[in-house]
Amino acid sequence: MPPQVSNWQSTEDQCSFNIQGMADIGLVIEEKLPFSSIRIAATAATPIPLWMTWQFSQQESYTDTSLIIDATLNPMLSMMVKTPLTNFVNLLVDKLNELAESGRIG
What is the Cα–Cα distance from 16 to 46, expressed in whole angstroms? Predict the structure, then answer.
């Protein structure tokens, strides 16, 4: 975990954590469509309505992966969370690349 993340707890279908400078975040898997998509939603304890949808499309020699983030934010809150959210997405991309390069995911 990066140093900005604390209080990490997880089960197979949900996790909760704190990102320095933000509130506590809870996420739960709402829907899994094998080889197609995973939809994740913020739990009721999370102060920001948030959904993330990972979409997967198998190509000849690789899997094309997309992340769609849907959050209901007012303009002021949007400015406050833009940098931490961007950092979070960049961290996810870096970790996926590491896993793919190590052969742990294909």
Answer: 9
Q: Is the pTM of this model over 0.85?
A: no
Rounded Cα–Cα distance for residues 89 and 31 (Å): 20
- Locate the domains of the chain by residue range: 5-101
- Taking only the tens place, the pLDDT of each residue in 6-61 is 888 999 999 998 877 677 889 999 999 988 999 999 998 888 888 999 998 888 88
Q: In the chain, what is the straight-line distance between the N-terminal and C-terminal CA atoms, in Å?
A: 22
Residue 67 exposed, middle or buried by CB count within 10 Å (0-12, 13-18, 19+)? middle
